[in-house]
Write a structure and sequence with these properties.
- This protein has helices spanning 6-20, 23-28, 55-66, and strands at 30-37, 52-53, 70-81, 84-94, 100-111, 117-123, 129-131.
- It starts with 5 loop residues before the first helix and ends in a 5-residue tail after the last strand.
- It is 24% helix and 40% strand.
- The chain is of the alpha+beta class.
- It has a single domain (6-124), classed as Nuclear Transport Factor 2, Chain: A (Roll).
């Protein structure tokens, strides 16, 4: 049996699924009533600021925000307490046109008793930094 903290393990599964472009593994990592708030509050990614709740909404978030892009995580610190983990780092997103977006933030995951993600909450400021596509 692994001694890894359940929330940290769930966050690692989440990032691995994104890297592998495995939508089903990513959605399956969530509890039925899980929520994604990325970023927290109102933004162009979540105009009403209520998050994306339930597997259908989470899958739609994947289709709109993750599927078209290459997403890379650089987690510098990870703090696990109770049923949550807070990962501190950067996310780099390579858009289809080659432009690069980068956000620094804190990314929290809360899990249920089965280790499924109940809440993924991302603390970062909108708008992110955007770098034009590399010449070439």
């Amino acid at each position: 049996m692994s001694s890894e903290h359940p929330a940290r393990a769930a966050s690692q599964r989440s990032m691995e699924a994104v890297h592998a472009k495995d939508k089903q593994a990513w959605v399956d990592n969530f509890a039925e009533d899980g929520i994604v708030q990325d970023p927290i509050g109102t933004s162009p990614l979540d105009p009403d600021g209520k998050g994306h709740r339930g597997k259908q909404a989470i899958a739609a978030f994947w289709d709109a925000q993750i599927a078209p892009n290459r997403v890379l995580f650089d987690i510098r610190h990870s703090y696990a307490c109770g049923d949550e983990v807070a990962n501190v780092g950067s996310i780099t997103i390579v858009l289809p046109n080659g432009a690069v977006t980068q956000v620094d933030g804190v990314f929290t995951y809360r899990v249920d008793d089965d280790g499924k993600v109940k809440a993924l909450r991302a603390y970062w400021e909108f708008p992110p930094r955007i770098f034009p596509p590399a010449a070439g």
